Write a sequence for this structure.
């Protein structure tokens, strides 16, 4: 097992009706900026519950944070913060809202060029406004990590960064808030969690048996609960297990002491920023091609995955790997996720533009070995058709 340091300060408040306890987590003298997305929290009742819980607090609002939150839009929150002397941010939504709110927290008192908060990792900040979350869309685990992914308007830039100052102080996870999610958002969240886990698990063995078993337990839970929640969107236990799995998918614990990959995410960001695919759609496509191309480097872990997740025990090593990739593909497609770029009207002649974006973002040595250069990335992209 590799050396590591682990400290995750986020308090999790999980279960039904926990939003009513929101006021206990934010001091009464705090002036709050409530952030949210397109307004679904108003139609599903979450907004009213939050406002009721904070009836004795001073609350301002900043809504409309878009999926793949945009740098320019988020900057519009800074004057609101300064004018109203905001000193606490409350994000109500999914990963995009929480990521956007983290950026706002970092940018509120930043003296330099705020784009550096995104382009430098770790973000070059010394202070950040405190943040709390009410999660309504399980996927990104942003509610229990310090990372952000921010895009620019009319640009291929979709960049990840982070800083330890951006861990939320608390996150309320009430599975009932997810009952009204459209199937597409539910399945994207399942795929996002699945790939978060494989990015930390399907690398190479270092004797970290607990991390492996934790990762495998999340994958098996996703596979078991996905058909249940699609059959009955109000199945509380299925929703609860998916929500908790999503948080554990990227809350630091399964990724410490082991090599991490993240090439699937980096390659997928270029696709979503250029072509507008959902994050879950893009990563489902890329990971299948990547695993096939990098089968030699990932052989031991893919074979472990094949046996422990898919019960594949017969055939040669290559046959087992092929079957594991096929079963992964079939799982994604059972969720309604298409697994070829051509299914979205993207053609192979657009691959050079993606490679150009990777080069401009200096993503030229990806993967757990740093051996995915631009030529390898091109092969992965071309394997997505």
């Amino acid at each position: 097992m590799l050396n590591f340091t682990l400290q995750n300060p986020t308090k999790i408040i999980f279960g039904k009706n926990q939003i009513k306890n929101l006021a206990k987590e934010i001091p009464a003298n705090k002036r709050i900026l409530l952030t949210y997305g397109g307004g679904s929290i108003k139609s599903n009742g979450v907004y009213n519950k939050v406002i009721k819980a904070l009836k004795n607090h001073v609350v301002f609002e900043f809504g409309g944070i878009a999926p793949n939150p945009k740098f320019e839009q988020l900057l519009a929150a800074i004057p609101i913060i300064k004018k109203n002397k905001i000193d606490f941010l409350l994000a109500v939504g999914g990963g995009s809202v929480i990521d956007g709110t983290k950026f706002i927290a970092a940018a509120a008192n930043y003296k330099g060029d705020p784009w550096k908060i995104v382009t430098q990792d770790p973000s070059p900040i010394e202070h950040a406004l405190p943040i709390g979350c009410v999660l309504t869309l399980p996927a990104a685990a942003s509610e229990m990590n310090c990372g952000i992914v921010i895009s620019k308007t009319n640009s291929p830039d979709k960049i990840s960064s982070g800083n330890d100052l951006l861990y939320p102080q608390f996150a309320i996870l009430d599975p009932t808030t997810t009952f009204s999610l459209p199937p597409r958002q539910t399945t994207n969240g399942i795929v996002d969690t699945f790939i978060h886990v494989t990015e930390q698990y399907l690398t190479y063995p270092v004797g970290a048996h607990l991390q492996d078993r934790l990762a495998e337990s999340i994958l098996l839970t996703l596979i078991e609960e996905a058909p249940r929640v699609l059959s009955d969107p109000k199945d509380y236990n299925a929703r609860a297990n998916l929500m908790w799995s999503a948080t554990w998918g990227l809350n630091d614990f399964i990724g410490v002491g082991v090599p991490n990959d993240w090439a699937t995410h980096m390659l997928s960001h270029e696709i979503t920023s250029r072509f507008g695919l959902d994050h879950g759609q893009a990563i489902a496509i890329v990971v299948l091609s990547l695993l096939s191309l990098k089968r030699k480097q990932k052989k031991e872990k893919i074979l472990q995955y094949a046996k422990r997740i898919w019960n594949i025990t017969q055939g040669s090593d290559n046959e087992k790997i092929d079957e594991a990739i096929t079963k992964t593909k079939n799982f994604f497609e059972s969720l309604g996720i298409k697994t070829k770029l051509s299914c979205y009207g993207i053609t192979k002649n657009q691959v050079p533009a993606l490679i150009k974006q990777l080069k401009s973002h200096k993503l030229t040595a990806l993967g757990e070995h740093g051996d995915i250069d631009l030529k390898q990335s091109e092969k992965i992209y071309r394997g997505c058709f």
User: Anything to note?
Assistant: The mean pLDDT is 96. The two ends are 37 Å apart (CA to CA). The chain has two domains: 11-178, 183-382.
